[in-house]
Amino acid sequence: MAHYTVLEFVDGRLRMLDQRRLPQEMTYFETEDYRQAADAIREMVVRGAPAIGVAAAYAMALAALHSQARDSAALLGELEQAAGVLRAARPTAVNLFWAVERIMECIKNTPDGPVADLGQAVLREAGAIAAENAWLCKQIGLNALELVPEQATFIHHCNTGALATVEYGTALGIISTAHAHGKKVFAYVDETRPRLQGARLTAWELQQLGIPHAVIVDGASGYIMKSRHVDLAVVGCDRVAANGDTANKIGTYNLAIVARAHGVPFYVAAPTSSIDLAIASGEQIEIEERSASEVVRVGAEQITPQGTQVANPAFDVTPAEYITAFVTEAGIARPPFGESLAEMVEKAKDLTRNV
Ligand code: MRU
Questions:
Q1: pTM for this one?
Q2: Which end of the chain has fewer CB atoms at under 10 Å, N or C?
Q3: What is the pLDDT of residues 231-243, one digit of tens each?
Q4: Ligand 1 midpoint to CA 112 (Å)
């Protein structure tokens, strides 16, 4: 469990640890306005696919609880509008769309009644999404134990810890669960340019968990795998297509190719809410393009000549053939992924009903 609160809903307000300021400052961003919550997702106050999903669900609760609508039909109209604003915040992580959809379904399935009751129903559903999320992250860590040797050197990309998921983490949860079960673990942490989620956030989380690690620049992974021993690569995901193609933080694809070249197994930690069976392959995944300012500056300092042209795709798609297996809350999915991922999604439905 994290020793800090990543995200919570208190007294009708959404409160989130501002990840833009970590590790230097621990400050919280608070709002009761769903539009500000959408801005916070866009600006990466909160980030990481599962955490974005939970934040979006609570943002829908803000929209419902602070609505002036007089009847449920008017509230539904307002919530449809809020859903549109939230969906537009970040395009790649499917968890955001999944969570918003689940809230809309909840509203449609709630018997007509006073607006305040519907607001409470939305808040309950958002709380259920958050609770399930914590449970499934814990399961992913446990399910992965059989893949982790007693002495394990990992390589990890981006940030997939409690900060990215609210509790436990996914890929980072695999590392911390192995550590908690007495395995001797060490993690190489890709710094993850341009937002430095690895250097700023993963290193911060690992430090607090007491897990030995070293931050490396993104370009070092090949050298590290060739010259030092790495047992396994673990990464998270923002959207997994039905065939296993996986969108994740830019640089994941490079890491997967390097891992294949060195015979290092490449595992993707994937809550089933990140699996999008509606799309056949990664070609259908929209890749977020972010501002050039993230690339041309390091901190406040400009590092490129004025006027330099920049491309800043925030994610890439790793073809399924480079992925050894997916670790989900329902178990481990191995190739052929077309069958095994669909099986995990079905199995997870039964499991989460009992959470
Ligand atoms: O742009 P970010 O920081 O939201 O990207 C995060 C990632 O790519 C993570 O690897 C992914 O969301 C999985 S988090 C458990």
A1: 0.96
A2: N
A3: 999 999 999 999 9
A4: 37
